[in-house]
Amino acid sequence: MSTAEKKKSFPSPFELPTPEGAEGWEELYPYYCLVSPERQELEEGKFWFFDGMHNPEPLYPFDTIMTENWWVALSQMTNRVWAFPPAIGVDQRVINGYLYVAPNICDDPVKVAERQVYFTRRAGHYYENWDEIFDNWKVKAKDCIDRLKAIEFTPLPEYEKEEYVTGHRGLYSSHDLLCKYNRLIENMLEMGSYHFEMLNLGYGAYLTFREYCQSAFPGIADQTVTDMVSGIDIVLFRPDDELRRLAKLAVELGVDKVITDNTSPDKTVELLKKTKEGQQWVQSLEDSKDPWFWYSTGVGYCHADPVWMTDMRLPFTALRGYIEAVRRGEKVDRPLDEILEKRARVTAEYRELLPTEEDRESFDGLVNLARKVFPFVEDHNFYVEHWHHSIFWQKVRELGDLFVSSGFFADREDIFYLHRHEVSDALYDLLIGWATGTQPRGEVYWKPVVERRKAKRDALAKWAPPPALGTPPKSITEPLTIMLFGITQETVEEWLSVGQDSSNILKGVAASPGKVTGRARVITDPEQLYEIQKGEILICRITAPSWAPVFPMISAAVSDVGGMMAHTAIISREYGLPAVVGTGFASSTFKTGDLVEVDGNFGTVKRLEEAV
């Protein structure tokens, strides 16, 4: 590669040094997700961008089930099911432990035309029957969750049950345990397929509306387009709405002081149970918890992210803030009426600018379709990444307990240092030992492997992954890449010009309008959410839906990754906060305490004063 070419490219995946102490990190991951010297020309010819949205930290071996799940599920929907004309699928590689993805494109005009026929017919069927299909989707998703809940991992018995013998069952605990593990994995892959059944069609409808507006109204801002589809009442906001309801109830019942005076959720609940009014409030809390507290503080793709159901610090922190607002007589509900009023006004203004009735009919059809599909784009998150995935991680931990009791692991969390295929092997090893009475090799084999892998992953965590690798693309057409990740030709050019040693100004996607100056609060770990102060500007790699309770406290939001349909963008618009997403480097450029100006109208973030 010439010097001139290098200036126009990102680093090669093969040029990156291995972090000190992480030598041999490749053993943590399957061969098929690593870059391969045998395909070096192919690997370097692709545009790889860091997926800090779903996996901001080095992947745990078992957690790769999430990434590999969507690697197939998303790509098959784009390529083999819907046959999006210009987009094929999204490829993946794990590089120094971090997930990089690359959109594949179809640039053969003949093939594009062939795919257009399939897409028009198949997508048209879904768009025409969207509401009915979405209702059925919820039934399928809930059934998948119920079947996941029913899976239980229990210790193997000393002797089989008498009824297995007298009932001539012929199948015993070894078979049952293998079947449970297989069902666990199959259940995850099943939900992955449901995850992407309608998602790219949702992004595609919005992308089509956006492109229409850009053509009909040259120079229209992305925020103006989103204003016309904002103001949705979706399931994903329900957990935060439950906290607001509980805050109002606490004040009504006169138990609010107990909640605001205690920082420990467990202690708070214990104290509340001592009074009749407190018991009433606790019962209301319990009624809300399932399903609304199956809410990850991350995006659900990593087992290590705390979940409200088992770690109530975040919801109780939000509760205290809402209670104080209620005491002051403030309205704690989302400004939905204002957003809907703006939506109607902006839509009418732009509709009137169209020259013909035919144009207005096209506009009406596209904006109505974008509004129709939008609830799925957000609501699927709760069913899939939060409700389902949080329970999935709990079930894996239960299996980890079984391995601990059998002497394979020292801690239930050790299971996450094995890939799912290795867990299958370890499970059979355990069954051999149980059946024969011989010590299984796993008792002496896995503990040193786990310790070695822990050290390697810890070393990988100290590495700062660059935002992109490989060859910049000629075009980006894959809907998810554009709408969710915010990766466009402009993004690529910005990253090429900025580099790791960024200046005091970063440019990203203008995701929610407004201009604010304030002190930065840089969040790189959900544990830091409890440090946020009123009026600060949230700067992070990406937000999670469960962070919604902190949005009433902040004055603006900035993220490294994300597009117009990323959660940071959507929730900022719903709360009326300025936001800039897809900056690439914000969380590493700025630090907590910096005086920062966020311009959500033009997509810039500027440091005005460095923290002392």
TrEMBL record:
Gene3D superfamilies: Phosphohistidine domain
InterPro entries per record: PEP-util_enz_mobile_dom, PEP_Utilizing_Enz, Phosphohistidine_dom_sf
Residue intervals of the PEP-utilising enzyme mobile domain: 532-601
Superkingdom: Bacteria
Protein name in UniProt: PEP-utilizing protein mobile subunit
Organism field: Neopusillimonas maritima
